[in-house]
Amino acid sequence: MPEQSPLQLTFSSNQLLQDLCGRHDAHLQLIEDNLGVQLVTRGNQLAIFGPAPQAGQAKQVLEDLYELLKNGVAISPSQVEAALRLTDGVLDNSMRSADLLSGSTVIATPQLKLMPRSVTQHRYVSALQKNTLVFGTGPAGTGKTYLAVAQAVSMLVGRQVSRIILTRPVLEAGERLGFLPGTFEEKIDPYLRPLFDALDDTLGRERWAKMRESGQIEIAPLAYMRGRTIKDSIMLLDEAQNTTPTQMKMFLTRLGENSRMFVTGDPAQSDLPPLRTPNGYVPQPNGLKDAIETLDGLRDIEIVRFRESDVVRHPLVSTIVTAYAERERQLNFKLGE
């Protein structure tokens, strides 16, 4: 079988080609490792050796990344990984990964600019920017909470709202806040660590601490939301799978003038205790799943569902999440026999 001819790319700027390749060709190495191709540069040309489908995907990734460089967007290994992920998801779509990475879905915060790293993230960020109520559901590591915090920060510093309110149900410790030692902040803060990490990255610790003192950023357990009408704010409910349907309805009806709500969680991972019935214990309905079933399809409400393939942490995390999901499916199948 004759050896397949390589795909040839020619770039107009040697400097941008160097940026495309990365330091010590690190970006090219990422593409080679992910797609099983070989990339060879010579002058302002780049040859792609490998099977036609993978070579075609490498060509699209390289062209899209070069287009970003031409538009003044710096390229890092994370951008290369994002382009690989996006290209894989939109190969048969009219929208290119360059469009997804450099378009209106970029979230600008004081500390950094965030770009979608999967097709689902692109849909999610677009929904956060356009809709009053957005649900982001799916497994850990997909960026649903991090991106929601970043979008809230972007809107706050852009003066689209005057306040961010962060909340989540306090269930994990199996204790009531009143019985935990310390001040209110010392009691609630450990449960909100993932939100704090996102604030550190997008605002800087010192700045968001001052904003918390001034009331621009408010942190409260879900129970403290009852009876309030929240105006001119972004309200973010994290770990929403640990709400009851009654708690979820209470939260959703706090929405006031010029406010938005971002709700994140994984309906499959509820920590709610089971309900005792005459026939034994049964799973307690969770408010996130109930709300999605009730509100899906309504105007100005968007539900974005992430999958195991959308995990953007260490590649092993996606493998772990997929393995657990498959094991749960097998167990459920056996129970249904």
UniProtKB/TrEMBL annotation:
<keyword id="KW-0547">Nucleotide-binding</keyword>
<dbReference type="InterPro" id="IPR051451">
    <property type="entry name" value="PhoH2-like"/>
</dbReference>
<protein>
    <recommendedName>
        <fullName>PhoH-like protein</fullName>
    </recommendedName>
</protein>
<dbReference type="InterPro" id="IPR003714">
    <property type="entry name" value="PhoH"/>
</dbReference>
<dbReference type="GO" id="GO:0005829">
    <property type="term" value="C:cytosol"/>
</dbReference>
<dbReference type="GO" id="GO:0005524">
    <property type="term" value="F:ATP binding"/>
</dbReference>
<dbReference type="Pfam" id="PF02562">
    <property type="entry name" value="PhoH"/>
</dbReference>
<feature type="domain" description="PhoH-like protein">
    <location>
        <begin position="114"/>
        <end position="324"/>
    </location>
</feature>
<keyword id="KW-0963">Cytoplasm</keyword>
<dbReference type="InterPro" id="IPR027417">
    <property type="entry name" value="P-loop_NTPase"/>
</dbReference>
<keyword id="KW-0067">ATP-binding</keyword>
<comment type="similarity">
    <text>Belongs to the PhoH family.</text>
</comment>
